[in-house]
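Sat 14:20. Reprocessing the chain from the morning session after the first attempt stalled halfway. Input below, unchanged.
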Amino acid sequence: MPNKLSLFDSIIKMTSVSDRRSLEASLVNTLKELLSSDTKLCLLRISPDNDCDELEVASCIPRISHQTQFSQRIDAHGNLSIKRSPLLEQCIKEGGICSQQQADSLQTLFPVINNKLVSAILSVSCQSFNQEQQNMVEGFVRIYSNFLTIAHDNEHDTLTGLLNRKTFDLHLSELLSSSQPTQDQPTNSQERRAIKQNLSHWISVLDIDFFKSVNDNFGHVYGDEVLLLFSKLMLKSFRNNDIMFRYGGEEFVVVLSPSKRADALMTFERFRQAVEQFDFPKVGKITVSIGIASLHSQDNPATVLEYADEALYYAKDNGRNQVLNYCELLDKGLLSKKVIDGDIELF
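Finished this time. Tokens:
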């Protein structure tokens, strides 16, 4: 068992990051350093509506392929999940620590509770796990939960629950790096394919068409409901590894995880159609215009965001309710880069 000074150092290290993905990895990495070498750790996310038969793997040491206590599945988007077991169900339902003895180890589940709901579960499996160690892990989970709540409130939009403009401006590079696999995280076939094929992230700017008329004709209460339902459509349409922001007013930004151009266009087109087909209470039908641009590791995200914004405004000036790619508009001669002394003008 580590001494008090090393525990304080570990807590400081764990809480030195602020976004959710980094916090998840930090919790697992910190506990791995404090527990025995044979310990297996896995942090599982629970969907907000708690209606899914599977839990998403947020962070895991060692890689999930070695976590034989779970039944695993990789979905079409490359997200790794595990099926709910009776022990997991018990932990979620009771909101308390649950344990079961396996053939070669003891598995203990710790619920992560936010706003009186179990939002995640930390699984700890090892040959020997005494009460003192359990108390230590429980303390770290509670600290993690409290810090996660503070970080969430600070970085998320109050109305929609998406990440806010401040988070985009301050942490985009950090968020992009945290969405990449590390040596302690599972490396699935999609991630290996992204490295091999040099796929790119995509930044998109989404703007609800004629949103001012919604507020003018129906009032701000219904306008807020449109924004809330629009954000829920985003959460259903995009992948867990994609990063979604409410950028301001009726404007949203999505950073798509590594994808081919055709796949990225298909993803945004699918969302555009979902919005077009949705009936918003009292308001009825609305549409969305979307501009996208590819983002590589060497690119300046702010510059690429401006490219996507140019594609968006071309879409709005030429019919709305469409998805346009900045590079394709350049290739067709519909947009042009401004050049000053041989350099691209960024702003």
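Residues 4-155 form a domain with the Beta-Lactamase fold (CATH 3.30.450.40).
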